[in-house]
Amino acid sequence: MGKKIPKKCISVEEAKELQKAWCDTRTPEIDKCLGFEDTREFHWSVKELKQYLKYVKKQSKKQGIKNPGIRVYFGAYPKEQCKMDRGYSTVFLAPTGAPVGEGKDGDDAPNNYLIQPFNHNNGGMPPNVF
Prior knowledge:
The protein is of the alpha+beta class. The chain has one domain. Helices cover 30% and strands 12% of the residues. It is built from three helices and two strands. It has helices at residues 12-25, 27-34, 46-62; strands spanning 69-76, 89-96. The longest helix is centred in the middle third of the chain and has 17 residues, at 46-62. It is globular, with a radius of gyration of 17 Å. The two termini are 29 Å apart. The mean pLDDT is 89.
């Protein structure tokens, strides 16, 4: 038998609704302000994500963090670092967690600035629609 679906998964229909709401309420204003269509989807391979999560788990364990997490942040590249001199959006993953007894856990866990964040993803241009 296959494994259970993780608790926080959503349906494809809900994901499509979320993407549509983003596109309807944010992308027109963002693109108008920037003067170009910005990216709004980002891709890493499963292999890359597994390697990063393994790194975070290993480094967290060394620090006495038993339940590390990942926080996702929006970012934007400086125009000088972008093809076509635009400054496209990006996202990066930031490790969270504090040693047992030294802080909040779960959603309230602090960022762990001793572990490097994860970026350098690929985004579709034009953006891929979900």
